[in-house]
Amino acid sequence: MVATTETFGDGGSIGLLDRERIIARPGFNRWLVPPAALAIHLCIGMAYGFSVFWLPLSKALGTTPDSCTNLNLASALFTTTCNWRVADLGWIYTLFFVLLGCSAAIWGGWLERAGPRKAGFVSACCWCGGILVAAIGVMTHQLWLMWLGAGVIGGVGLGLGYISPVSTLIKWFPDRRGMATGMAIMGFGGGAMIGAPLANLLMTTFRTDTSAGVWQTFVVMAAIYFVFMMGGAFGYRIPPAGWRPEGWTAPAAKSTMITTRHVHLRDAHKTRQFWLIWAVLCLNVSAGIGVIGMASPMLQEIFAGSLIGLPDVAFADLDTTQKASIAAIAAGFTGLLSLFNIGGRFFWASLSDKIGRKNTYFCFFVLGIVLYALAPTLAGLGNKALFVLAFGIILSMYGGGFATIPAYLADIFGTQFVGAIHGRLLTAWATAGIVGPVVVNYIREAQITAGVAPGPALYTGTMYILAGMLALGLIANAFVRPLSEKWFMRDEEVAALQAKTAAANVGPTGSFGIGTGGLDGKALVAWALVGIPLLWGVWNTLKASFALFG
């Protein structure tokens, strides 16, 4: 692709994707930026729903020959005659979130220099291109190509796409930082609600006697996602330096926890505050992602026959047909948790604008500790409604933690490098993506080895350990304090960094006629383009959830 250029004031030129090209001009409506961010996040959020492909892929070759019984991970990567195991495919999920955290950390600084449009463009190429490489892996039955395409290349796209709108939205909505990032980041939680039913629909359409329909589904979804992500990337605009919403004046500091200064990217990780917030995110996510990973088996093993009107029948006593029935109901439980995850991203992030980020995390940890500690009691009582509600609230705080953390960082470190700092902090997510599931799975296996039968007792120890993780997070959050003066950049240094995005021929601050318009016709169309698919996903999730209480 050859980018068009135009002359810039210093005699250079600006490419179509360059940061200077997307400085907003008078008449631009800031409410066009959140749907652009959502367009990208709803696409990359399908990472949460990729497990919908595991079972079809594990049966892609039909009956597995006897010679495949001793298949190991190394041989599974290159076999063309043996079906893949679900565990081998599941490594793609791990790669997603490890690469997300690593790529966000490595290229976060580049994003601040290059701007969100270029980052969104590269994200679309990596995410959709990675899915196409994975499609070739399915066609040729090469698992290593699946890992490379979806896991590695796609994972890089996830990281760049995830952080691409953060800094931009915070700068567009200084009056509502939490709400703005919550609107975008809830899209990442909602991507699977759209992508998973769409994938099932496409696989059903393409399935034949000789094909599971997966590679064709990958190709179609990659094409759809590419269109949406490009629309999002080219919809990004950044405000000129000194811009503020029309009629809005920054209020007098209500808290020393909110700075008006800026910390350079090179210094952020040297502060104690960065690592405390890193621990806060890692511990909150480790506990939440552990629940996500075991949600379906946990509900089935705890409530067993009561899910289908047989309250006295334990899980081990159910026949194959009955287990299939409760598995379908458990899928509804998983979908319901997704709704809480998404709603929590917007609710808690918006609430943080009122009560502060540190207090919001105090709510997460205190309420989470109570709910995890009560979970075994609720399971023992057999109270399905309260059990589901408790874990719904827990998952809302899991999602809320992701949505609130960018505003927390902006409060402590300023907005100049918040996108890049957020990128580095996402290594906490990569760590939690390994720690949470591993801890939860090993505890469960240890309980089974010790002779604990499937039921509430199987998860009691797990709940108490997850509560302990949140207690450590509570302590880390309590130690977060405002930064010392020595960490902030000088005003001249900030001005030099902002020079290329300063509005021409205007004063140093003001609205400049930019950002006005509210939800006008153009903004409503943009919101409809992302809102209608999201509502379709919500409806499908609700339908699947009805069986839980049917």
Write a short abstract of this structure:
By secondary structure, the protein is an all-alpha fold. The protein has helices at residues 33-44, 54-58, 73-76, 86-114, 116-140, 143-163, 166-172, 177-206, 214-235, 265-268, 272-303, 320-355, 357-381, 384-413, 418-425, 427-449, 457-478, 491-498, 521-546; strands at 5-7, 13-15.
Can you describe this structure?
This protein is mostly helical and 550 residues long. It folds into two domains: 29-63 and 81-249 and 504-545, MFS general substrate transporter like domains (Growth Hormone, Chain: A, Up-down Bundle); 262-488, Growth Hormone, Chain: A (Up-down Bundle). Helix content is 67%, strand content 1%. It has 19 helices and two strands. It has helices at 33-44, 54-58, 73-76, 86-114, 116-140, 143-163, 166-172, 177-206, 214-235, 265-268, 272-303, 320-355, 357-381, 384-413, 418-425, 427-449, 457-478, 491-498, 521-546, and strands at residues 5-7, 13-15. A two-stranded antiparallel sheet has the order 1-2. A hairpin with a 5-residue loop joins strand 1 (5-7) and strand 2 (13-15). It is globular and about 70 Å long. It starts with a strand and ends with a helix.
